[in-house]
Design goal:
single chain, alpha/beta, Rossmann fold, 2 domains, five-stranded parallel beta sheet
Length: 331
């Protein structure tokens, strides 16, 4: 059978077009939008932003975000992104659960990945959380070994499960290395109010606390000014407080974001619980390097922390998830 030159050229041209189309499809970037109710530099959302910017750098996505979105305006902003052709919408919806879920139901072809204390909502509302209680426990072990007064002050945002579980894990870790330790606990009822957190920390220092758990911005500033120590949360701020922040429990959102993007690209995004990808075995969390405190943390404490971390990664030790509001422990 003979094929005419014209037919052959048409066939080759068609194949080229098909190949180009397939390549373009494979390389297509999905449009991602994020909605943040606080400034993007706030600990929690900064980790989401960091992971999304890493995806931009890889060429996987186009990314835009809105910060400082009020609860009253959240639904409008979310609908705007859904109408604007964004395939994946990321954010935190703890205080606006009903509104966020309503929007997701109205846009079944848009994928939603949101920080939430609730359950997934089929077919397109996946939820995540920062399950970093494991490194929080390890950082507590360090705190217990570093305090001289046996008094630790803890300043949190709101007493919600996502905060409570980290503080309780921290306290349990501190108790392991120092059964004599006492805790003062305070919540500032804000996600971003450094001056208020700082004042709460000052009050704890006045009562004898020499190590502070900095769940919020502002606490490390108080510790620095008073010559005390601090343990960080979610992000590593030791570069800003080299003589103050001993260690931090770090949240890495990259595993969760990468999984979600891959699923969206494959058309297989699921409404499921993504929180497990924040755990240490998935590299979703970790204890920060001791850095400037490498030689200041007692060797026996460092050894105990290393052994406990190994046990956690091997599945031989499970940090209890305790979502109840932590209370002061004073003898």
């Amino acid at each position: 059978m003979q094929i005419s030159r014209r037919a052959l050229m048409c066939t080759l041209a068609g194949a080229a077009i098909l190949a180009c189309g397939q390549t373009a499809f494979a390389q297509a970037k999905i449009k991602v939008a994020a909605i943040y109710t606080v400034p993007v530099e706030q600990q929690w959302v900064s980790r989401i932003d960091k992971a999304l910017k890493a995806a931009v750098a890889r060429g996987d996505i186009e990314y835009v975000f809105s910060e400082n979105v009020t609860n009253a305006d959240y639904e409008r902003v979310m609908r705007g992104y859904a109408e604007g052709g964004h395939t994946l919408i990321v954010g935190e919806s703890f205080a606006v659960e009903a509104a966020a879920r309503k929007v997701a139901k109205d846009y079944p072809k848009v994928n939603f990945l949101v920080g939430s204390g609730g359950k997934p909502q089929a077919p397109n509302f996946g939820v995540f959380d920062n399950y970093i209680q494991e490194p929080a426990y390890l950082s507590g072990m360090i705190a217990g070994g570093m305090t001289k007064s046996n008094k630790i002050g803890m300043v949190g945002g709101f007493p919600i499960p996502e905060v409570n579980r980290l503080m309780n894990a921290f306290m349990a870790g501190a108790k392991e290395t120092n059964p004599k330790v006492e805790f003062t606990v305070s919540f500032i009822n804000s996600w971003f109010d450094p001056p208020k957190a700082k004042e709460a920390a000052f009050a704890m220092i006045d009562k004898g606390a020499d190590v502070l758990y900095a769940e919020r911005f502002g606490v490390s500033d108080a510790a620095k000014e008073k010559g005390k120590l601090a343990i960080g949360n979610v992000i590593n701020t030791q570069d800003k407080y080299p003589d103050t922040v001993v260690a931090s429990a770090l949240w890495n959102m990259e595993p969760t974001i990468e999984l979600a993007i891959k699923a969206v690209k494959a058309g297989k995004f699921e409404a499921k619980e993504y929180g497990e990808y924040s755990m240490m075995k998935h590299k979703g969390s970790e204890l920060s390097p001791l850095g400037t405190f490498e030689k200041k943390v007692p060797a026996d404490i460092a050894a105990k922390v290393a052994a406990k971390q190994k046990a956690i990664l091997a599945g031989q030790f499970n940090v209890k998830v305790n979502d109840t509001q932590p209370k002061a422990v004073v003898k």
